[in-house]
Structure formats: structure tokens, C-alpha cells
Amino acid sequence: MNDDFKEFKGRIRRLDAILVERGLSDAEFAQALSKVRRAEKRGDRSREPTVELRTLLERAEGLVPKVA
To answer: How confident is the model over 20-63, as pLDDT tens digits?
Structure first.
């Protein structure tokens, strides 16, 4: 696994932790994170994450529920 993909996986783990911490109350966030996970599984970990994968991750990060 290259370093970029390792960093990418860390960001996904952070989003997973947020999802678990806050529960499944935000369906849009949960669905966006699910899309990232599925795309990541299809990706080639020996190469840089694709533009599609980066876009999906950034979209999920943008949907992180804000603390009220």
C-alpha cells in the first residue's frame, strides 16, 4: 500500500468513527461514506487514489454532521 492510500484509509477510518459516535441519524452522510468504502475496495492500493475516489471522500467529509 502506498503512502497516499494509507493517508486516504486514515481519513476513511476517521469518518467511520464519526459515524459510529453519532449514530446513523444522518442517512446522507452514511450513504456517502458507504460509496467511499465500496469504491475503495475496488481501487488499486498500489497506486494513487483515483480522482473519483478522492471526490467521493471529499463529498463525505463535507457532509460530516456539525456539532450543534
So the answer is: 887 777 888 899 999 999 988 877 666 777 888 899 999 999 98
The residues spanned by each domain of the chain are 3-62
CA–CA distances in Å: residue 33 to residues 1, 5, 7, 18, 27: 21, 16, 16, 11, 10
Contacts 24+ apart (CB under 8 A), 30-34: 32/56, 32/59, 32/60, 32/63, 33/60
Three-class DSSP category at 37: helix
| Gap between the Cα atoms of 9 and 27, Å rounded | 21
Residues 6 or more apart whose Cβ sits within 8 Å of residue 33: 12, 15, 16, 19, 60
